[in-house]
Design a protein that fits this description.
Length: 270
C-alpha cells in the first residue's frame, strides 16, 4: 500500500509507522490522518506482524493538527467519521471513533516518542498500549492555549493514565512537561536517550512478539480496554470464559511445552 506522508515498514514481525512531515513537526493533515488509519489497519490485518511502533521523523513525534488546516476546519468536520471503518475485533463502539481506534487494533501499539507530543500527538500516544520516550521529549495538551477544549476523549483517557489531579493540571494549564516528569506521573512507561530510542523500541517490540503468546496479548489487550466499562462481576465472567477458551488453544499447549522442555517458545498466535 502506497503512502505519501508516512513511512511504513515491517521488520522482524514489527510494523513501524513513521509520521513523515519533519519540517512541520509531523503535524496532522487530512492526508496523514487517513494514511495513519490505513497503516494501522494494514498492520492489524497482517498475520506476520505481532507489534506496531508509531514514531515521528525528525525532531518531533507529532505537534498536533496542522494549524493551516485547523484554521479553516468546517464545524462539522470535528464530528466527521471520515476515514473510519470498523476494525473486525468485535470491540465496542467507543473505540471506533476518529482518534480512539488504537484500542480496536488487535496488535499492541508502542508509541516511540522522539520529541514534542502536543495536542493530537499526545492523544495518539495516550491511546497507545505502551509509551517509550526519549529524554528530549516534551509533552503538552496545548488545547487551552489555542482556545480549544479536551478533544477526542482525552478527558476520559488522561485521568485513567496519570490520575485526576495530574490530568487536571495538564489539561487546564496546558503547560509543557519534560520526559522526566512524564515518567514520574506515569504518562510514559520508559525514558531512554534519544539516540537509543529507535533501537530500544524495536528490541522491546521484538521481545513482545517473540516471548509471549500473541493470542494472550490480543485477548488481554481487549480485556484491559473493555474493563473501564465493566463492573467487577462482568470482568470476572469475561476472564473465566476467556480462560476456558485459552485451554484449547495452540499457544496454551506451546506455553506449557516450552516451559517443560526448557526451550524458547514458538507461539503461533492460535
Amino acid at each position: 500500500m502506497a503512502y505519501t506522508e508516512l513511512i511504513y515498514r515491517v521488520t522482524d514481525s514489527v510494523a513501524t509507522i513513521v509520521l513523515n512531515r519533519p519540517q512541520q513537526l509531523n503535524a496532522l493533515t487530512h492526508v496523514l490522518e487517513s494514511e495513519l488509519y490505513r497503516a494501522v489497519a494494514e498492520a492489524d490485518a497482517d498475520p506476520a506482524v505481532r507489534a506496531i511502533i508509531l514514531t515521528g521523523a525528525g525532531k518531533a513525534f507529532c505537534a498536533g493538527m496542522d494549524i493551516a488546516q485547523l484554521e479553516g476546519l468546517p464545524p462539522d468536520d470535528i464530528r466527521s467519521a471520515r476515514h473510519m471503518r470498523a476494525f473486525d475485533m468485535g470491540v465496542r463502539a467507543d473505540y471506533q471513533t476518529r482518534y480512539s481506534y488504537f484500542p480496536a487494533c488487535s496488535k499492541p501499539i508502542i508509541s516511540a516518542i522522539n520529541g514534542a507530543a502536543a495536542g493530537l500527538g499526545l492523544v495518539m500516544a495516550l491511546y497507545s498500549d505502551f509509551r517509550i520516550a526519549s529524554r528530549t521529549s516534551v509533552f503538552t495538551t496545548a488545547f487551552a492555549k489555542r482556545g480549544l477544549v479536551a478533544e477526542h476523549g482525552v478527558a476520559w483517557i488522561l485521568p485513567r493514565i496519570v490520575g485526576h489531579a495530574s490530568a487536571t493540571d495538564l489539561l487546564l494549564t496546558s503547560r509543557k512537561i519534560d520526559a522526566a516528569e512524564a515518567l514520574r506521573v506515569g504518562l510514559v512507561h520508559q525514558v531512554v536517550d534519544v539516540d537509543e530510542l529507535t533501537t530500544h523500541a524495536q528490541e522491546f517490540a521484538v521481545r513482545l512478539g517473540r516471548d509471549v503468546s500473541p493470542r494472550s496479548v490480543r485477548v488481554m489487550k481487549r480485556q484491559l480496554w473493555e474493563a473501564p466499562f465493566q463492573d467487577l462481576a462482568a470482568a470476572v465472567r469475561v476472564a473465566n470464559d476467556e480462560m476456558v477458551a485459552s485451554f484449547g488453544s495452540d499457544d496454551f499447549r506451546e506455553g506449557v511445552n516450552h516451559f517443560i522442555e526448557r526451550r524458547a517458545p514458538a507461539f503461533t498466535g492460535q
